[in-house]
Amino acid sequence: MVQAWYMNDNDNEDQRSERHLSPPNYIDIDELKTKTGILYWNIDADNYENDENFQKIRQERGYDYQDELEISKTKIDDYENKLKIFFTEHLHSDEEIRFCLNGSGYFDVRDRDDRWIRIKIGKNDLLILPAGIYHRFTLDHNDYIKVVRLFTGQPCWTAINRPADDHPSHQSWIRLVEATK
């Protein structure tokens, strides 16, 4: 099951560390949804192609394209630089959908009060980050993750780095989370 907590954003600490506050401040999946708009499902990664819930999510949300991505020192050229790029705070004009088949990592997202929340994802976790949410990604100390990426229509990987507060997708995200207050 996915774990999430408010995090310490100490730049002197390894980005792959858990970065807990002292004391730790965990949040549950319902609070995560309310404060960020993130959606979560637990899907059997070993049998996801036959999983009715996975197929229902794809159909209801219009995901008609998918691919797989492995991130590790042996799978990605210029690995360390790529991790730095993934860890740059940004948003997308479309949802970001990641389903973890194996390995683990962290998505860091901003809540409606602009505080960082760290989400640890691992095998069987499917996350949907809403369009316009500021976020970043890093691996944990295992240095490996394999994910399915889902898209509506043609895949788009355009990252819009912060600041992008006036971007229409970010403004829509603000309205989404403000409606849950």
From TrEMBL:
Which amino acids does the record list as binding Fe(2+)? H90, H92, E96, H135
**Region of interest called Disordered, as start-end residue ranges on this chain:** 1-22
Q: Which SUPFAM superfamilies match?
A: RmlC-like cupins (SSF51182)
Coiled-coil regions, chain positions: none
Q: What class of enzyme is it?
A: oxidoreductase
What does the cofactor section's free text say about binding? Binds either 1 Fe or Ni cation per monomer. Iron-binding promotes an acireductone dioxygenase reaction producing 2-keto-4-methylthiobutyrate, while nickel-binding promotes an acireductone dioxygenase reaction producing 3-(methylsulfanyl)propanoate.
Q: Pathway listed for it?
A: Amino-acid biosynthesis; L-methionine biosynthesis via salvage pathway; L-methionine from S-methyl-5-thio-alpha-D-ribose 1-phosphate: step 5/6
Q: Which reaction does it catalyse?
A: 1,2-dihydroxy-5-(methylsulfanyl)pent-1-en-3-one + O2 = 3-(methylsulfanyl)propanoate + CO + formate + 2 H(+); 1,2-dihydroxy-5-(methylsulfanyl)pent-1-en-3-one + O2 = 4-methylsulfanyl-2-oxobutanoate + formate + 2 H(+)
Q: Where in the cell is it found?
A: Cytoplasm; Nucleus
Give the principal location in a single coarse category. Answer: cytoplasm
Q: Which UniProt keywords apply?
A: Amino-acid biosynthesis, Cytoplasm, Dioxygenase, Iron, Metal-binding, Methionine biosynthesis, Nickel, Nucleus, Oxidoreductase
Job description of the protein: Catalyzes 2 different reactions between oxygen and the acireductone 1,2-dihydroxy-3-keto-5-methylthiopentene (DHK-MTPene) depending upon the metal bound in the active site. Fe-containing acireductone dioxygenase (Fe-ARD) produces formate and 2-keto-4-methylthiobutyrate (KMTB), the alpha-ketoacid precursor of methionine in the methionine recycle pathway. Ni-containing acireductone dioxygenase (Ni-ARD) produces methylthiopropionate, carbon monoxide and formate, and does not lie on the methionine recycle pathway.
Q: What is this protein called?
A: Acireductone dioxygenase
Q: Which organism is it from?
A: Dermatophagoides pteronyssinus (European house dust mite)
Q: Which gene encodes it?
A: ADI1_2
